[in-house]
Amino acid sequence: MTRHTPSKRSAHELKRLVEAAVEAACDLKGRGLWFCVEEVLASGQPTERLTVWATLHFMPTDHPFCCGEPECHLGLRKRRQDINDHVRRAMKLRQVVSVEFGNVSANYHDGIRFTSISQS
User: Are strands 49-58 and 98-108 parallel, antiparallel or unpaired?
Assistant: First the structure.
């Protein structure tokens, strides 16, 4: 397998494509969540796999979040195929492109709230 580190311009483009794919597949618009790719590593020629490290930003909203876990709000495992397909189409490729998520960390901005769970 060929490892390929994209140039600055293509790395930026790949970040943008993955961010758009996650925003669409995870329906983030208007939910107070911002998915920001920090780093992307492309493998294969043409690209077969993208490994992504990202941060999910929790922004202040009128409604509290249930928790601060990125996977709870993104559901990347169950939406993986939609993300892969979105990226593949955006790259204008016919072969399968697999988007793998290394680490998705969380950043909690001032003013966010979480629902409190009362225990009986």
Answer: parallel
Which spans in the chain are helix H? Answer: 8-25, 70-74, 76-90
Measured between alpha carbons, how far is 107 from 34 in angstroms, rounded to an integer? Answer: 10
To which H or E segment does residue 38 belong? strand 33-43
Distance separating alpha carbons of residues 3 and 19, to the nearest angstrom: 22
Alpha-carbon distance 10 to 62, whole Å? 37
20-59 pLDDT, tens per residue? 999 999 999 999 999 999 999 999 888 899 999 999 999 9
CB atoms within 10 A of CB 107: 13
Please state, in angstroms and as integers, the Cα–Cα distance from residue 82 to each residue in 6, 27, 113, 116, following that order: 23, 11, 30, 32
Alpha-carbon distance of 30 to 62, in angstroms, equals: 11
